[in-house]
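TICKET: design request
STATUS: open
ATTACHED STRUCTURE:
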């Protein structure tokens, strides 16, 4: 679709920025907070980059007023943050820690007093350690129940003040890193356990949405999904099929459950053949069907490219009928790659990459938004998008023109998607301030506001607005009109 003129951004468009509790708050054991799996995991040598952790992070817990004042100065319309479950319930369940709850109520009040819409994420990866120890975390249905109770406490306390709620942040990412690659807590490498945990997280998500609709009928709730559109490597129909498989395996596997209340059939069948599909009860099916989100949160960084895998290629080339069931063969030869039967990934030669090797693909952003709109027909809230880079402080300034370019290009594609007909609520850049990158410490920076600390030292944690801060300020002030002016 080509547009000679782009539609303006909606007048109530929520221009925002985002963060997550463990990555910014610090105060890891203050005022009765219990440990999370990340507090524990980051204590073990070798688990994180240069042993970085969130004990102090950028001390947002104690400096939130200063941070909100900066948001106001920028003109931010929305701020997405997450609640640390173990601040509210130190053990994950049981007695409520009033001081923890009060912190979030104070933060919400501070935002509202500055006309900033709070966007509250209920789960951004920091499961209470108590639940991991007692129930094996997300591998048990008791954790889904504990999540529902935790949500009830927040809905009761903040339901009248907060309109936008996010259930799970990037379920696809935290289950893969935590249960497949062993790179996040609980550090497991077991696909069967991953799919079982993922199913219980789906149950937890559905329970939370269901409860929310009962308790906060005027509010809006949805998960935030890390969406990456899949491209075929070539126009070879086999590559096209591989890309469709990639979409199903990477994206529909999660999004269909959220939005249609059921697992996509093709993927489920493959997993069942490998003996790693989750067990789904009738009750689960009913619950998943009932709990439809009001919007979809989308985190977009990049997509992927798929091609027919080598194994399939040989099969096609030889045109032989193999008596060996390829699925079972795969299961025994490489149980860690169920998608091998469906697609292989390839480098996309058309795209540049970030300092960390992530593809930069603004058009893919538009593709993503359109595909989601077409498949699920829900309003979309972009809850993350941004550039991780090595920023250099010179003369108390950060000239991050590369970040401005990145955001400018992505926002223009978002405007094109709006013009195409995508229903958009808002856009939260990742991130407002610099923060702790889970596995890359404090050197991989995303913020509009530089925070003067490094991996080893907290220093004074001074906040220094970058060039991108002033650029985004102008984007917000003009409700996006400056994006097109910048192009001229
Ligand atoms: C998203 C997460 O996956 O990506 C954020 O929701 C994270 O919490 C962001 O920080 C960027 O990832 P990274 O690894 O570059 O810090």
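STATUS: resolved
RESOLUTION: sequence designed for all positions
ATTACHED SEQUENCE:
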């Amino acid at each position: 679709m080509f547009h000679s003129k782009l539609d303006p951004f909606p007048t109530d468009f929520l221009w925002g920025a985002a963060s997550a509790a463990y990555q910014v708050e610090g105060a890891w054991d203050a005022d009765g907070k219990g440990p999370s799996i990340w507090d524990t995991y980051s204590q073990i040598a070798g688990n994180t980059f240069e042993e970085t952790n969130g004990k102090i992070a950028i001390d947002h817990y104690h400096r939130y007023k200063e941070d909100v004042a900066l948001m106001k100065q920028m003109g931010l319309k929305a701020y997405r943050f997450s609640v640390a479950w173990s601040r509210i319930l130190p053990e994950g369940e049981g007695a409520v820690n009033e001081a923890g709850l009060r912190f979030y109520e104070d933060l919400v009040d501070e935002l509202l007093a500055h006309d900033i819409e709070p966007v509250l994420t209920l789960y951004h990866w920091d499961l209470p350690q108590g639940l991991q120890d007692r129930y094996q975390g997300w591998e048990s249905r008791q954790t889904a129940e504990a999540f529902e109770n935790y949500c009830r406490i927040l809905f009761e306390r903040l339901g009248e003040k907060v309109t936008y709620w996010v259930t799970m942040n990037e379920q696809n990412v935290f289950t893969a890193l935590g249960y497949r690659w062993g790179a996040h807590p609980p550090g497991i490498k077991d696909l069967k356990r991953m799919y079982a945990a993922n199913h219980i997280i789906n149950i937890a998500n559905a329970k939370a949405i269901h409860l929310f609709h009962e308790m906060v009928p005027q509010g809006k709730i949805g998960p935030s999904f890390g969406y990456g559109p899949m491209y075929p490597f070539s126009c070879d129909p086999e590559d096209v099929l591989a890309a469709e498989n990639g979409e199903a395996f990477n994206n529909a596997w999660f999004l269909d459950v959220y939005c249609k209340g059921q697992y996509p059939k093709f993927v489920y069948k493959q997993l069942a053949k490998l003996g790693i599909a989750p067990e789904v009860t009738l009750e689960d099916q009913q619950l998943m069907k009932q709990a439809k989100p009001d919007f979809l949160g989308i985190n977009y960084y990049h997509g992927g490219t798929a091609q027919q895998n080598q194994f399939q290629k040989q099969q096609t080339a030889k045109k032989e009928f193999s008596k060996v069931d390829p699925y079972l063969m795969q299961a025994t030869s490489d149980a860690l790659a169920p998608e091998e039967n469906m697609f292989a990934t390839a480098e996309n030669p058309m795209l540049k990459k970030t300092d960390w090797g992530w593809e930069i693909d603004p058009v893919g952003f538009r593709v993503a938004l359109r595909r989601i709109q077409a498949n699920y027909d829900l309003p979309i809230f972009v809850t993350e998008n941004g550039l991780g880079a090595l920023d250099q402080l010179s003369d108390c300034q950060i000239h991050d023109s590369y970040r401005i370019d990145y955001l400018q290009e992505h926002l223009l594609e978002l405007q094109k998607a709006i013009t195409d007909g995508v229903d958009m609520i808002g856009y939260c850049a990742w991130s407002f301030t610099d923060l702790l990158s889970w596995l890359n410490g404090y050197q991989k920076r995303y913020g509009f506001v530089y925070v003067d600390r490094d991996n080893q030292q907290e220093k004074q944690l001074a906040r220094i607005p970058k060039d991108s801060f002033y650029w985004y300020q102008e984007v917000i002030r003009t409700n996006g009109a400056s994006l097109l002016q910048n192009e001229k």
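CLOSING REMARK: Residues 317-335 have pLDDT under 50 and may be disordered. The longest helix spans residues 191-215.
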